[in-house]
Amino acid sequence: MRKQPVSLLFLAMFCALTAEAKDLGSFGDVWPVREQSFLALIKDRLQGLQDNGQLAALQQQFRDRVEAHTLRPVPVEGLATDTQAHTTWYDPTFVVGQTLADAQGHVFARQGDTLNPLDTLALHTTLYFIDGDDARQVAWMKAQTPPTPTYKVILVNGNIKSAADALSERIWFDQQGVLTKKLGIRYIPAMVRQDGKRLKITSAPMKEAR
C-alpha cells in the first residue's frame, strides 16, 4: 500500500474539521466599544467652563496668585526690631575644600588653604535690610546716606512694588532668608558694609520693638 505524504494527511484533517464547524450565532447583547479619550474629556470640560464663564475666572485667579507671590514673597522668619542698636561682625574667611584652578589649569587655591574673599575683592556696596510693611523702617531708609558709591535695599518682608514706589529705588528680596541667615542678622532695619577684612552689621533702634 502506498503511503500518503504527511502534508496531504494534515490537509485532509483540516478539511474534515472545517466541514464539521457550524455557525452557532451570537448570545447576549452586543454593543460597539465607545470609550471617550482622556484628551477629549478634558477638551469637553474646558469647553464647558469656557461656555459658562468659569474658565476666564479661573485664569484670572491663577494670574492673581502668581502676581501676588511675585510681588510679595514669603517673609523671612526670625527677625525683629529692638529699641536698642546692635552691632555684630561677619568674617567671610573659609577653608578651601578642594584645590581650585582656572581654565588654563593655574592653581589659585589649594585644599586646606584659608581664604578671605575681602583680601582680593572689596565690597563697594552697602546692603540695607528692611521690612517694607513697617513704615518706620521705610522712613529710616529714606533718611540714610550710604557710605559707599552704591547700595542695595533688600526686603525681608513686604510688597516689592510698593517699597520701590515709596523709595524710588530698585528693590531686592532676601528669598528664603539666605543672606540674613548667612550674615547672622537678627534685628532690622540693618546696614551691612565692609570694615577691614570683615563685614560690619549694624541694626538701627526703633521706638517700639516688635
Automatic annotation (TrEMBL):
The protein's name in its UniProt record: Conjugal transfer protein TraW
Lineage start: Bacteria, Pseudomonadati, Pseudomonadota, Gammaproteobacteria, Enterobacterales
The Type-F conjugative transfer system protein TraW N-terminal domain, residue ranges: 8-33
Protein origin, superkingdom: Bacteria
Keywords of this entry: Signal
Organism expressing this protein natively: Erwinia typographi
S-adenosyl-L-methionine as UniProt keyword: no
Signal listed as a keyword: yes
Pfam family, one: TraW_N
Signal peptide: 1-21
